[in-house]
Amino acid sequence: MKSSRSFAAAVGLLFFMLLGGIGTLSQKTYASVNHSEKDSIKCLQQLSVASLALEKEMFKHAVGPWRFLFKNCPDLSVRMYSDGAKLFKHFVESAKDEQSREAYLDTLLMIYDKRIEYFGDHNKYPEGWIYGRKGMALVRYERKNVNALKEAYECFQKCYSRMGVKTEPAVMISWIQASRALVQKGDHSEEQFLRDYVTVYDHITADGFKNSYNERVYERILLAVKKIFNRTEKCNCETFAKLLETKSDVNELDSNDINVFMEVMEMAECSDSELYTQLVERKYEIKPSAEAAGGLARMFIKHGDFDRAANYYSEALEKTVNDSLKAVFYYELAVLKDGHFKEEVEARQYAKRASALLPGWGKPHLLLGSIYARASVRIEGNELEKSAVYWAAVDQFMMAMKKDAKCSEEARKQIDVYSQYFPDKQTCFFHGLDEGQEFVVGDWINEPTTVRFR
């Protein structure tokens, strides 16, 4: 009883204020053509009662005054509709039986429809914003109902078509959740889901959107969007090509569109597809750089297109003035020339350039050692001259171990393997060589080394 009396007193005080200074303004502001002045005062009175009850979470006290407003004063204020949404969300979530829940949900959806009818042109919360709220309510409360999901999906489309870049993250996330659910229920194609997802991903990765949130909040939004995709059944990579056909030709895409498509295709594990290759090359055409050329070279190696890979490494080397980056490209080109093209002389040349540009890096020396060791059988000369190649190979492995701790373990293994192939003492003596003596390995290798016995 005490609570009810204090509530009634609070309402009386608030209404007294409305009839005073604030009330004068309210009466002037709200004078519907369908109401007399007396009716208008009644509407304002009921609004104050409903709003105060809601603030105190006295939902049963709020529902009567609110229903009066909804029926008799639908054009009173935006506040009436936001209060109504809060009120009936509570009733939906606390309903004791399914019949009551459905009735409350119907009222909640009707609130959104009426708000569009009377306040769809509101500056801050226009029609599109309301559609987004209605769609989210449907997804939240009727996720298992196909027809409700379809209605929610339509609401999200209407929201985005009207709000564009101002569409809220929660709406975008609910949109792709609805789209994904419709695919799972067989009412949506995979292509449509991808179209929706690309639209949303494009929206949230745009600079304007990123700059609207602090880094932590933005990362949470991005993670939520990516999680939806990761929980989706693996896409057919050919669907991306179909989707792109409906949007544009690859050669007409701008760099932002390309980035969005590429990132989504990477999430779908479709980076080995021909379309992905076309997108990467198109991106390079728009904005060529050493890094992009190097990325293309690596991609073509993965695809087995070694000639194109070699060409892009050459372009990468032409475009960079950074010694470290250039060293990496020379090294990778050396690996390609040696491993695929079997051009060991050229491979040796590129590996040495990499080493000269990045003296503390051990990998070029590991590669040189391997090139020399494998060349032994093809070197012209006698038994000693062929075996002497292993001296040069081990020299490179020792250099790798000395320069780069990261290469020590691998270098040591190679030294253990190839030192077994050194010439023996008898062979060296036969050719007039003593241990520790300088020797120049012949043929194209032409490297000075030191005589060592097996």
TrEMBL record:
It comes from the Bacteria. InterPro entries: TPR-like_helical_dom_sf, TPR_rpt. TPR repeats lie at residues 290-323. Keywords: TPR repeat. This is Uncharacterized protein. It comes from Marinilabilia rubra. The lineage of its organism: Bacteria, Pseudomonadati, Bacteroidota, Bacteroidia, Marinilabiliales.
